[in-house]
Amino acid sequence: MLTNIEQAKQIIKEADSILITAGAGMGVDSGLPDFRGTQGFWNAYPAIKELGYSFEQMAKSEWFVKDPKLAWAFYGHRLNLYRDAVPHVGFSMLLDLVKEKNDDYFIFTSNVDGHFQKAGFDTNRIYEIHGSIHHFQCMKSKKHGIWDAAEVKVDVDMQKFEALNIPTCPECGSIARPNIMMFGDWDWLAKRSDKQEALFNRWIKSQASKKLAIIEIGAGVAIPSVRMQGEHIAKRYQHATLIRINPRDFTVDKRNSISLPLGGLEGIKAILEMDESANLQEKIK
What we know:
Order of helices and strands: HEHHHHHHEHEEEEEEHEHEEHH
Mean pLDDT: 93
Number of helices: 12
CATH topology: Rossmann fold
CATH architecture: 3-Layer(aba) Sandwich
Number of strands: 11
Number of domains: 1
Strand order of the largest sheet: 3-2-1-9-10-11
Largest sheet: 6 strands, parallel
Distance between the termini: 14 Å
Low-confidence stretches: none
Helix content: 25-40%
């Protein structure tokens, strides 16, 4: 009888195409902080612990009105962190995999860090459902659109936890904000994400009769958008199989799904490297 890792390897080998669905757990092995739970968030941002705010309370657009220095301290630091971090080797392993499948793939991710683009994946094959921290929008008017923030640098005083400079809209000079969907956010400009969604929907429709391997990495249950997408496709498409890689929230519907209770990078290695699978299979028994 095949082990779950062996089954996953076989499914990937026989697959015509690959859907990679990724949550925050994908970035942990690149040195990005785990915001899981209030304590995890406070460990990453001790200054916010002193203020007593949770991640959900901080990740709101209203801060750009009430206290833009605090808002940009939080998002500016994250922007700098994501820019400086190097995508771990699992990204390149997945990139090699999709190249073997004649680039018949798509990325569906809730991450705003831009690391799939940074790792070399095709921009037109990535759907960032919550937007991107590398793009900004105007707080005053949606008519001013979305712009690439590659040339913008935000300096943060980590002791006072306040931004030393506030990014502004090139059209009107008003305060800018990241083009990220925040909690209770009615002002998020989704035009960029909508274009990505249209490309994704077109691609996924083309997969109905193909053998599709869905590799889900580090997607939690608190905001289950990524998990639900993979589960939906695995149930809808007869030849699709979901491979869930998650050290904690690893349960799956047994039908058309395989569970691997592993971290992101070790899970990727388990299904894509021959010499890693035996040791990791022992770990998850």
